[in-house]
Amino acid sequence: MIIKTLHGIDINRLVQSFNKAFSDYFIPIQMTVQLFLDKIKSENINLNYSVGVFIDDNLLGFILTGITEPGYKRVAYNAGTGVWSAYRGNHLTEKMYKVLIPLLTDVDIHQHQLEVMIQNDAAMKIYTRVGFNKSRKLLCLRGKIAGSSLKQNVVIEKISFEKDLLIQNSWQPNPSWQNNNCNIFRGAGMSQCFGAFENNRLVGYIVSLPEKLRIQQCSISKDFDTQNIANALFNLVKKQIGDKEISIINVDENDIEFITFLNSVGFHVYAEQYEMVLEVNNNKLQ
Asked: Residue 182, class by beta-carbon neighbours within 10 Å (0-12 exposed, 13-18 middle, 19+ buried)?
């Protein structure tokens, strides 16, 4: 058994291993090469700092690592841990972290983040042994958007997404990794961003991935009519996708107003996750 980085690995081989590892997951995941390349881009996955377990040249386990961009707090994000079912129970995740953590520490990355399904007790026990602690609970929702009437004073226009677009004192003040501003900005070619204006002032926006039927962010200024602005933005998405079901993942459970609004327009919770954080200085594996 060899544990090494995924630098230089053939992408087709990596996708095949990923699909085999997640074929029996709580919510089964199957990737195409293009979807996987999109994931690498949007989550800033660096294969030089991702690791895998190899036996007889078979990649039977891996940790994919996303890394924040220069100029921001250095954080590593676990963008996917997978182990083939036949090899689970052999502490491979802990063994991979023993290799991965020193690699990241060498480039001054001391904080690690991940999400884990709340019913995945086995994974939570593994991450706890590594040194991770729960930081918050995240909800994943989906539904068919119910249309609503609009006031005439809301104007919706397509806008460019900027890294600092997050509106002050707004909904979703602390997006999860996959929905954070840097990742959306990096994948700007895949996302669409529309702004809501009242009296020529930007008072809200929504970012979506229409092809993937996913909403990444919806931010509304609390100084304005949040319900009306949100309805206008979600109506725009509905016009784009019709009666198809769309999702939004990893919403902080404390964003009560936002979640209440999502429920009111047809969304329901289909999965719950814990965000977990590891500070390397407290790492039990050192």
From this structure: middle
Which pair of structure tokens corresponds to residue 13?
């081989």
Residue 91 CB neighbours (<10 A): 11
Asked whether the whole model's pTM tops 0.85, one would answer yes
User: Left, alpha or beta for 105 (phi > 0: left; psi -120 to 50: alpha)?
Assistant: alpha
pLDDT at 286: 45
Q: Which residues contact 57 (CB under 8 A, 6 or more apart)?
A: none
Judge contact between 165 and 264, C-beta under 8 A: no
Residues of the chain by 3-state class (helix, strand, coil), percent to 5: 30, 35, 35
**pLDDT tens figures, 73-97:** 789 999 999 999 999 999 999 999 9
d(CA 31, CA 193): 25
What is the rounded CA–CA span in Å between residue 146 and residue 238? 8
Q: Which residues of the chain have pLDDT under 70?
A: 70-71, 149-152, 163-173, 188, 282-286
- Residue 166: its pLDDT value, please? 60
In whole angstroms, what is the distance from residue 177 CA to residue 185 CA?
A: 12
Work out whether the CA dihedral 212, 213, 214, 218 comes out positive or negative: positive
Angle, alpha carbons 250-61-81 (nearest 5°): 10
- The whole-angstrom separation of Cα 42 and Cα 39 is 5
pLDDT tens figures, 246-279: 999 999 999 998 999 999 999 999 999 999 999 9
3-state SS string for 109-162? CCEEEEEEECCCHHHHHHHHHHCCEEEEEEEEEEECCCCCCCCCCCEEEECCCC
Token digits of residue 242 = 């019709």
- For the chain, give the number of residues: 286
